[in-house]
Design a protein that fits this description.
The structure is a single chain. By secondary structure, this protein is of the alpha/beta class. It has a single domain, classed as Acetylglutamate kinase-like (Carbamate kinase, 3-Layer(aba) Sandwich), CATH 3.40.1160. A nine-stranded mixed sheet has the order 4-3-5-2-1-6-10-11-9, sandwiched between helices. Helix 1 links the parallel strand 1 and strand 2. Helix 4 packs parallel to helix 6. The longest helix has 25 residues. The mean pLDDT is 95.
Length: 234
């Protein structure tokens, strides 16, 4: 069983898409119920949600005004976080939303001491708006918040059950790692996290646990040690 008291959970915004509905209430409610249960067990939970259901950065990577596109993408993460906060409250959890920039009343500007106080009060915290700067992914934002807030682990939700030596959806012979070092992730060019996020976690010696987040039930399984995953450390 994982002995984590405070975790940072990174989720893809794509999890909240249902067909043509890019902000579907049903999957939000399912994930909110799972997070609320995790919080009620005593684990302090911080969450960063990507904005891929609304705008995918890779689709705009060649745009001549990439910085402006990234700022629009940050707004997408604020929308996801704001709506997920409501879903958490519907599920019985107390939640608060912070953002790298001021987006009140949806999200207040991030303040480390306020966030730590909110954790101590048992609130689930959502961190929106990325780092507040273009050219940095929400993975980097999640790593930054996890280190700033002294989290025990960065839980990186993906579409597969860990880190592989190649894309398991394309290569049926891909090999999954139970554990891998940050340096090896960089040397192999594995795309599970962007390089900035890897560097932040490596320098802070913050373990990253990569797991399949397509099923909300996996949160509890990850905590009790029964879920297949990959740990990046060292």
């Amino acid at each position: 069983m994982a002995n984590w008291q405070r975790v940072l959970l990174k989720l893809s915004g794509e999890l909240f898409r249902a067909g043509d509905d890019v902000l579907a209430r049903a999957p939000m409610a399912q994930y909110a119920t799972a997070v609320a249960a995790l919080a009620s067990s005593g684990v302090q939970v911080g969450i960063v949600i990507g904005g891929g259901n609304l705008l995918r950065g890779r689709d705009w990577a060649s745009h001549p005004h990439r910085a402006d596109v990234d700022h629009v993408g940050m707004l997408g993460t604020v929308m996801n976080a704001g709506l997920f906060k409501l879903a958490l409250e519907d599920a019985g959890a107390s939640a608060r939303c912070f953002s790298a920039r001021d987006h009140r009343p949806v999200a207040a500007p991030f303040d480390r001491r306020e966030a730590l106080d909110a954790f101590a009060a048992g609130e689930v915290l959502l961190f929106a708006g990325g780092t507040g700067n273009p050219f940095f992914s929400t993975d980097s934002a999640a790593a930054l918040r996890a280190v700033e807030l002294d989290c025990d682990a960065f839980l990186k939700g993906t579409l597969v059950d860990g880190v592989y030596d190649s894309d398991p959806k394309k290569n049926p012979n891909a090999v999954r790692f139970d554990e891998i070092s940050f340096d090896e992730v960089l040397q192999r060019g594995l795309q599970v996290l962007d390089q900035a996020a890897v560097a932040v976690c490596r320098d802070a010696q913050l373990p990253v646990v990569v797991f399949d987040s397509t099923d909300p039930a996996n949160f509890a399984a990850l905590m009790d040690g029964s879920l297949t995953s990959t740990t990046i450390r060292g």
